[in-house]
Structure formats: C-alpha cells, structure tokens
Amino acid sequence: ALSADREGTCKELKKQQKIKIIKEDAKASKSCEKTWMYEENAEDLHETYTKILHSLPAKQMEFAVKAVSNGLITRRWLSFVSNTDGKCPLCKRHDHTIGHILAGCKTALHQGRFTYRHDNVLRVIRGWLKKSLEESNTKFTIWTDLVGENLDSSLPKGILPKHLNGMRPDIIISTTTTEKGVDNTAVWIIELTCPTEQRFRASNDLKREKYEPVAAVFRKLANINVVELVPIEVGARGRPTRSLRNLKPLLQRNYSNAIEEAGRAAIIASMHIFYGSEDLQWRHHA
Questions:
Q1: How far is CA 84 from CA 96, 99, 146, in A?
Q2: In sequence order, what are the residues at sequence separation of 6 or more whose Cβ sits closer than 8 angstroms to the Cβ of residue 96?
Q3: What is the C-alpha separation between 252 and 247, in angstroms, rounded?
Q4: From the centroid of its chain, how far is CA 250?
Q5: pLDDT along the chain (286 residues), means of 10
Q6: 94 touches 104 (CB < 8 A)
Q7: DSSP string for residues in 121-144
Q8: β-strand 226-233 against 182-193: which pairing, if any?
Q9: Which helix (H) or strand (E) holds 106?
Q10: Which CA distances in Å does 198 have to 178, 204, 205, 239, 260?
Q11: pLDDT digit string (tens) for 52-72?
C-alpha cells in the first residue's frame, strides 16, 4: 500500500510539473507576441509574417508555428516529465529553451551557428538590393561583408578601409544620381541582426551606437552628400521588424518580396539550428 501511495504521489508531482511548464511556456509565448505587437504595432508586418508562414514547405511551416507558440520540445520541457537533463547540451550551463537555442547560447555563437543564419539572411537582402538598384538604372556600388565571398570586391569609391575604424558593417552601398550636371552621392550603412522578438529594439539601438562613429566619418568626406545608417532586424523566428521599412527607398517595388524571402531564410536556418542543438559539432556552413 505504501509503495502504491508513493507511486501515486510521484505521478501527481510529475503531472503538476508538466502543468507548470506548459503554463510557463504559454506565458512566455504570450509575452513574446505582446512584445512584438507592442514594438511594431503595424498591420502590414503581421500580414507579411502570415504570408511568410503560409509560403513555407509543410515541414518548415510546422517548425515555425511551433517555434512562435513555444510548442517545440526542448530538454527543459522534457526535464519536467522525465529524468532528462534540462541543460543545453552545447554550453551545459543554461536551460535548453527555444530562445536559448535560437539566439542565446554562447557556445552556439562561437561555433558559427548564428552566423550561419545571419549570413543566409544577409545574402537574400544583398541579392534583392542589387536587383532593385539594377532595375532602377541607378549608378551604384555595393560591398558586403560575407566571409569567403568576393562577389563585391571593393569598397565604394572614396571610402577607404581606414574610414571604417576597424569595423565591418554588413553592407555598404554607394548610389550616385546626377541633377543639372552635379553628382549627388549617398552612402547606406546597413547592419543586420537576427535576434529574438524581445531583443528587436535593444539590438537596433546597440548596432546604431556601434556604427555611428563610422557614419560620422563618412559624413565628413567631401565626396559624400548623404549618409544613411540603417540597422535592421529579421527575427530568429522569421518575424519582420519596422526597421526593414528603411530599406524601401532602395528595394522599391521589390520590398515585400525581399522581406518575405528574408523571413523564410531565417526560419529555415533556425530550424537547422534548433534540431542540430543535440549535435555537439556544427555541420552546416553558410
């Protein structure tokens, strides 16, 4: 009888623990959604995200929906219903949660897992920027900081490595228009981050602060008329942010297609990151 009582007590404890984790994850999901809606507060972004989700193949769509609703099974979740160790298998320090796996693990960062996602999204944005500028017949030069790729071989004319103060923005674009025989040159400094929704605003502020000294140097150059510093974010779960609207003058009619493809690229890369979190060696390459 005593053994049966103990077994019943253990089952009840496990049941209560399971209920607790479900409630915590639901609360986190609601907070995440609330944060995004509060910071963005724009119907067009919500509509864009819906389009992104519906345009995904079935497997990727299932992952994305579960990711935004905190429905993915993590070690932390399993630890409440079994004897599974709830810690991240990579860093072995923090809980194995969706947010930690997708954007918080320092070990994953050092292994290049987040860089893999960042560079895949950056390629999409770079591609659409190039296409849009070519279609507009604008005279332009584009430089992209992608390791091992020399598609954009040199910095825009008049910009020297010393002007960057040792820093490497993701994209530098120089555009030149001529009015009444006078050339007007604008330089765009674009820096991409793929954070969780709660970090959208903080990430933008940090990147703006980091690259403002570079923009200040550019503004002093006699051959540059306008300098635009544009930190942008595409969420780790593929959510677009209002900072992306600042690319509209460059993307023009391709804006929606570019944002949707960037969101899909982030989701697909994050799926590899999530399901690869049990693999101690990172096997994907950007």
A1: 11, 19, 39
A2: 74, 75, 76, 86, 87, 88, 89, 277
A3: 8
A4: 20
A5: 56 58 52 46 72 94 91 87 88 92 94 95 95 90 77 64 79 87 88 92 94 90 89 94 94 96 97 93 71
A6: yes
A7: HHHHHHHHHHHHHHHTT-EEEEEE
A8: parallel
A9: helix 106-110
A10: 42, 12, 13, 12, 20
A11: 999 999 999 999 999 988 889
Longest dimension (CA), the chain: 97
Residue 223, token pair as written in the block: 């051959």
Partnered with residue 189 across adjacent β-strands are: 172, 229
Give CA 189 to chain center in angstroms: 17
The Cα–Cα gap between 213 and 282 comes to 35
DSSP 245-265: GGGHHHHGGGHHHHHHHHHHH
pLDDT tens-digit series, residues 166-222: 788 999 999 988 877 788 889 999 999 999 988 899 999 999 999 999 899 888 887
What is the Cα–Cα distance from 276 to 272, expressed in whole angstroms?
A: 6
